[in-house]
Each structure stands twice: as structure tokens, then as C-alpha cells.
Specification:
alpha/beta, 11 helices, binds NADP nicotinamide-adenine-dinucleotide phosphate, binds zinc ion
Length: 347
Amino acid sequence: MTTTKGYAAKAATGPLGPFTFERREVGPKDVQFEILFCGVCHSDLHMAKNEWGGTNYPMVPGHEIVGRVTKVGAEVKKFKVGDLAGVGCLVDSCRECDNCKKGLEQFCRNGSTGTYNGKDKISGGFTYGGYSNQIVATEEFVLKISEKLPLSGVAPLLCAGITTYSPLRHWKVGKGHKLAVVGLGGLGHMAVKLGASFGAEVTMLSTSPEKEIDAKKLGAHHFALTKDAEQLKALTGKFDFIIDTVSAPHNYNQYLNMLNTDGVMICVGAPPTPSEIMAFSLIGGRKSLAGSLIGGLPETQEMLDYCAEHNIVSEVEVIAMDYVNTAYERMLAGDVKYRFVIDMATL
Ligand code: NAP
Ligand code: ZN
Ligand code: ZN
């Protein structure tokens, strides 16, 4: 076992603080790496505060993890010591079910293992995430990272990047499509960048007027303030696709009304409480309401390679480890530009 330094939520209320724990020794198929940067996802906050239920404390969040390999097992083929490496939201799955065989490990029939708060099938107990100085994971769940891009900006691709890339690819969003992105935070800003990169005409739908300039810099062609009823009226029936990244309860019907005939609204944001959907929001115009969860391992690697080729990274605010509680408060207030990333040298 290797003693590991981290930062943990100790209870549903109260701040995160220092926490020391053990990680397993490097097995024959394992890769160990020193964590250099870890992104701060709103899911970390939902989980730390037990908003979705099922959190086991102490809980070490973090699933946007990048660093440099320090040790590899004898059977490891893809990595050697000194290589860059990444871990996203998953560290294990059965690898035998139909979904795993299709590279959809996030939908493993036997339950995939989350990078944190997941049932650890190897060491027992629960997995600990990337707010820590090192990680050990089986090679199949470790991603190759290009040396070309700034590493702090690559970290958020491991969750915010793949969570928006995957539905855009699945629904083949691109040239000739009008795409709206709801919520300009970590996921939202990646949806704008990737959607624009795939050739879609992108509209940012935000509650924050001050984000308009940035939205356009990120690649959005249009911006609408969702608090302004007049601006919303003008968008009725307009979009082929909407990606909803909002973390808090909100009115889905309002956005469904903005879909064109046969349009699809894809929920990636995961508010902790249910919302009411009017059947009438869907039946007129034959609209679809869909959802999407992160992405499988092959698609995550494809996304990282795409971003390296097209110079796409996250816009980040690099923070020290002990700033994370303030970062959570700012995230709750919608004050992100556009992903907090922890510099693990400050741990
Ligand atoms: P974030 O950085 O905090 O961004 C969320 C954005 O939503 C805010 O910046 C804000 O943008 C908007 N917003 C917040 N409260 C709102 C409200 N009451 N009404 C309307 N808009 C509001 O969060 P994130 O890290 O991008 O994560 C977003 C959500 O996706 C979270 O629920 C997270 O758990 C979930 N998630 C899902 C997956 C998946 O696989 N499906 C993966 C990762 C994260 P504006 O200021 O522009 O309005
Ligand atoms: Zn996440
Ligand atoms: Zn499986």
C-alpha cells in the first residue's frame, strides 16, 4: 500500500479538508501516476454534499485527473514511466457485458466503478478520487494524453469534455444544425467549443448577462439571456438540438418550446430533484427529451485525440488545493470561468 495525501469531504455539511489514505500497490496491469492537475466538476460538489444520496465519507472527489506515470506493472503495454496519463470518471467495469464490449463502460450491466465513491472491487471499501497526489488504476482505464496541449486545460476534458463530446457525436450534431447550449459553466463551455468545432451554429442560453462576451469568444454565434421573456419568445421552435448542462432545478418545458420539429433536447446536467415535464412540450413537433452520461473509454480517447489535433482545451482558473471550498461556493453562484483546476503541487 502507498500512503497518499488528499482532500476529503468529511460530512454532507462543512468544508473539505486534508485526509491521508492508502492506495493499492501497483499490480501487473496497473499504472501509477503522480497527479499534476485535477479539475473541479459540479458532480464533485453534488457528491460532497450528498445531494444525490449514497455518499460515503470521508469522500475524496475528483475525476478530471492528469499527471505523469511513476510506475507500471509488468504486463502494461501502453505506458512507461514519465508518460503523461489521465483518468476520468471510471476506473473499472466488468469488461464482459454487451455494453462494456461496445466500449460503453459507463453503462456496464454489472456496475462500473466510479473514480470516487465507487465500490472498489480490488481493495475493498470505496474508491478515492483525484484531489490527491497519486492514483493507481488498471491500464484499460488510463487515457493517453498528448504532450502538445497545456496540461491544466486538458484535465477538464476527462469529464466536461467527454460528457459533451459524446452526445454531440451520438446525435451527429454538426454543419447545418442549430445547437443551443444551456448554462455556461464547465460542461457548457466545452459544449460550445466542441459544437462550434463540429460546424453547428451555436446559441448560448445563459442566466448571466456578463458571460455574453466570453460565450462568443468560446465560439458561440448567438447569446440569449434566459431571464428575459422577450428574448426567449423569439427562440420558439428554433433549435435542432439543445444540450442542457444546468446543475440546479429549472423548467425544462421552457427549453423544449425552443426545439424545432423533430428536435432533441439532451440533458447532461443532473439536478438533484425531479422536474415536471408537460406532455404538450413534446407532442407538438414530435420532440425528444434525451440524456447522456459521460462516455466510454474508446470514445474518451477519441475525444482527447480530437482535442489535441484541433487545439481544444478547457478555459481554466488554476487554484490551490485549499481554495477548493471557496471554489465550490463560487460554482454554486454560477461564478466559474470556466473550470476550476487544482494545481496538485499545492496539496
Ligand atoms: P457548473 O460549472 O457549475 O455550470 C452549471 C451552469 O448552469 C452555471 O454556470 C450556470 O450557467 C447554470 N445554472 C446554474 N444554476 C442555474 C439555474 N438555477 N437555472 C439556470 N441555469 C443555472 O457545473 P458543471 O460542472 O458544468 O456541471 C453541470 C451539471 O452537469 C451538474 O449537475 C453535474 O453534476 C452534471 N454532470 C453530468 C455529467 C453526465 O455525465 N451527464 C457529467 C458531469 C457533470 P449560466 O450562468 O450561464 O446560467
Ligand atoms: Zn464530472
Ligand atoms: Zn460490463
